[in-house]
Design brief:
The chain has helices at residues 83-87, 89-105, 113-128, 133-147, 181-184, 195-206, 215-232, 240-244, and strands spanning 3-17, 21-28, 32-38, 57-64, 71-80, 170-173, 177-179, 191-193. By secondary structure, the protein is of the alpha+beta class. It has 2 domains: 3-80, OB fold (Dihydrolipoamide Acetyltransferase, E2P); 83-151 and 192-244, de novo design (two linked rop proteins).
Length: 245
Amino acid sequence: MSEIIKTEAVVLSKMNYGDTSLIVSLFTKELGKISAIVKGGRNPKSKIALKVDPLNLLEVVFYNKLNRDLQIVSSADIISHYPAIKSELEKLKYGQSVLEIVKYLTVEHEQNLRLFNGIVRIFSLLEESKGGQNLVFARFFLFFITELGYQIQFQKCVSCGTGGFGGKSIFYNFDQGMLCNNCSKNFIESFEIYPELLDCLIGLRTNKILDNVSKKTVDNAIAFMEKFLKYHISDFKGIKSLQLL
């Protein structure tokens, strides 16, 4: 028996199906990520066709059945379509990156209201931003990693317990964690974290204002987080949207 669900949803992706329909991936406020079909969604006369588009925030109504792989969307109305993100390449790169990691790194039918609100929030920030889009994305990326259940510890060396690195470069082993310079010599593989990068990563976690951090350092923080996820999630090969756009 189907249950009629009315909820807000972000469109993660869509693809053609059959002669006239669309299959869409949605991250919904009520049920988390779902896959759904828009029957007749490719028909020019369809009332839903132009609304169900990646990056759009919608209010959707669909018929939900637990044992069905594809739920059936019956209606959709646009709440926001973020025109600035879609028209500016730098903003689009990070908007698409958000869609990519949410689609491929979350499981279906697992409600996460914090994550849903975080997605809507970053789209609003990207839409309104006049620069620093990589910093906006970096904050979301660290938040997203935490929502997946991972914690990146920056406070002290996991081997000897030393903290307060005081402007010195330290290292990160993705199996063990943060290492001081001396302890890092005992590990073959480690990611060097220079002082500005460490301050950036800590600032991202604590929501500190980071206006004076260089673009290169923010990009390095994103690269570090990518490497962290690659190590812990074997199927994750990196964020393609960052390289393609």
